[in-house]
Amino acid sequence: MKFYNLLIKYRLWLGLLSLVLGLTLNFASFGDIWAAIIFYTIAFIAIFTHFFIGPMRLVQEPMENGNIEEVEKILKSIWFPNLLFKPIRSTYFTLQGNLAMMKQDFDSAEKHLKKSSEIGSSLVDNEGSNKLQLGVMALQKSNYKEAEKYLKAALSKGIPDKESEAMAHLGMVQIYMNKREFRAAKEFFRRAKNCKPKNEQIVSQIKDLEKYLTRVPG
Questions:
Q1: Do residues 100 and 133 make contact, with C-beta atoms less than 8 angstroms apart?
Q2: Residue 98 located in a structural domain
Q3: C-alpha span between 160 and 150 (Å, rounded)
Q4: pLDDT tens digits along 151-168
Q5: Any domain includes 47
Q6: Is residue 41 part of a domain?
């Protein structure tokens, strides 16, 4: 595994070295054309995978260890993200959006997450989480129309954990309360409670909303 990670990390330089060796063998008087073809093949595979697949596999370990600086370093090594294959490019922009949110740079986070959402993803869970984040940011800006669009999309695509699903339902409660459609708000509140979240902030929000919703019609 470590060898494979090293290969990914340095494959561009390996590809360039193989290209130089191939050219040298091809044009040198003592050269071996078949050996040159082998080096050309290695060069093509290494350079192609560097630009079209990228080093995204290297992100997993530092993400699990909470090494955000290493994650940022790996992402910065991707010079042309628009060349990445579609699902990889979507993941790249999602990670950039998440990093921006951690820094509370919400404008950059929204820009990156929207790019990821427009690209789409082969991973349904990732797409649902992405749209949930966009919905939450829209709510923070009191942009209820956009928040509703993203939260409905997140719930439709599927959200990987009950805490996040509860958050999406509570966002819908807020939207429908703003519309004064209390029956719909209560239905989304019921769904949020059914998720049985354990996060203290979400539980506290549910308790506060319950006190309010018992006093409204619908």
A1: no
A2: no
A3: 16
A4: 999 898 888 788 889 999
A5: yes
A6: yes
DSSP 82: G
Provide the domain count of the chain.
1
CA gap 215, 100 in Å, rounded: 39
Q: Which domain holds residue 31?
A: 1-52
Read off the pLDDT of each residue in 58-70 and give the average, rounded to a whole number.
Answer: 84
Which amino acid would we find at residue 197?
P
On whether residue 24 sits in a domain, the answer given is: yes
Residue 36 amino acid letter: A
pLDDT in tens, 67-111: 888 989 999 999 999 999 988 898 899 889 888 877 878 788 888
Helix, strand, or coil (residue 135): helix
Phi, psi of 17 (to 5 degrees): -65, -45
Distance of CA 64 to the CA centre of its chain: 15
Higher pLDDT, 118 or 50: 50
